[in-house]
């Protein structure tokens, strides 16, 4: 009977440990997003379409001074000069995906210094193309 009790306690402890580690992971990712204002670092694409490459180059030029700030209430603020855009954000799918408004992106890298997301843009004129956006502390 004592052996069953010890095994049960040990199993409960291990399950509790894994559960708390999983919760901390979510919290850590959220903490990293909320830690500071993010500054635009650039956009890239794997497309070889000249029009898409021009769109990416234009986006990089226009976004050069953009900032992105995540708020604890689940909203974000994207600022570009005098223009301010706000919407909701959410981490999901075990912190692999970041949803900002209606845009869903894969979280490629998130550290204290860098935020990198990738996704797919769809243009009625040029079709679908992949992109990667980078933000720095």
Explained architecture:
The chain starts with a helix and ends with a strand. It is globular. β5 and β6 (103-110) form a beta hairpin. The protein has an eight-stranded antiparallel beta barrel with strand order 1-2-3-4-5-6-7-8. It has helices at 2-34, 50-62, and strands at 38-44, 67-70, 75-80, 83-92, 97-100, 103-110, 114-123, 127-136. It has two helices and eight strands; from the N terminus they run αβαβββββββ. Mean pLDDT is 85; it is low at 1-26. With 137 residues, the chain is α+β, with helices and mostly antiparallel strands.
Keywords:
alpha+beta, 2 helices, globular
Number of helices: 2
The major beta sheet can be summarized as: 8 strands, antiparallel, barrel
Order of strands across the biggest sheet? 1-2-3-4-5-6-7-8
| N-to-C order of helices and strands | HEHEEEEEEE
* Beta-strand share of residues: 35-45%
Summarize model confidence as the mean pLDDT: 85
How would you classify the helix and strand content by structural class? alpha+beta
Number of separate strands: 8
Q: How far do the termini sit from each other? A: 56 Å
Helix amount = 25-40%
Q: What is the radius of gyration computed over CA atoms, rounded to a whole number of angstroms? A: 20 Å
**Shape annotation:** globular
Low-confidence stretches: 1-26
Short description:
The protein has 137 residues and is of the alpha+beta class.
């Amino acid at each position: 009977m004592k052996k069953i009790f010890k095994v049960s306690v040990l199993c409960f402890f291990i399950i509790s440990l894994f559960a708390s580690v999983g919760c901390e992971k979510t919290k850590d990712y959220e903490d990293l997003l909320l830690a500071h204002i993010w500054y635009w670092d650039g956009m890239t694409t794997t497309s070889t379409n000249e029009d898409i490459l021009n769109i990416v180059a234009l986006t990089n030029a226009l976004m050069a001074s953009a900032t992105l700030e995540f708020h604890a209430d689940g909203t974000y603020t994207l600022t570009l000069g005098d223009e301010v855009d706000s919407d909701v954000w959410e981490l999901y799918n075990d912190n692999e995906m970041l949803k900002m408004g209606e845009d869903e992106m894969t979280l490629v890298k998130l550290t204290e210094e860098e935020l990198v997301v990738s996704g797919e843009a769809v243009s009625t004129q040029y079709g679908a193309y992949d992109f990667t956006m980078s933000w720095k502390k």
